[in-house]
TrEMBL record:
This is Uncharacterized protein. InterPro entries: MCP_dom_sf, MCP_transmembrane. One of its GO terms (biological process) is glycine import into mitochondrion. It comes from the Eukaryota. Its main location: membrane. Keywords: Membrane, Transmembrane, Transport. It comes from Magallana gigas. SUPFAM superfamilies: Mitochondrial carrier (SSF103506). One of its GO terms (cellular component) is mitochondrion. It is found in: Membrane. Belongs to the mitochondrial carrier (TC 2.A.29) family.
Length: 62
C-alpha cells in the first residue's frame, strides 16, 4: 500500500535492503543447486556438494 506521507526515498531504501537480504540468503543455495544440475554424476548429495565446493574454493583461495 502506497502511503503519500512516506518519502519515496524510504521506499527505495526498503526495497534495496529487502533485495540485498534476499540475495545473501538465497545465493549459497543457488550455487549448490547449479553445481548439482550441471554435473549430476559428480555432485549427488547436498552435503557432499557443499564440502567439495568449500574444498575447491579453499584450495584456490577464492
Amino acid at each position: 500500500v502506497y502511503d503519500e506521507t512516506i518519502h519515496p526515498q524510504l521506499y527505495f531504501v526498503c526495497g534495496l535492503a529487502a533485495g540485498s537480504i534476499a540475495a545473501v540468503v538465497t545465493q549459497p543455495a543457488d550455487v549448490i543447486k547449479t553445481h548439482m544440475q550441471t554435473d549430476s554424476k559428480k555432485y549427488k548429495r547436498i552435503m557432499s556438494t557443499v564440502l567439495q565446493i568449500y574444498q575447491v574454493r579453499r584450495d584456490t583461495n577464492h
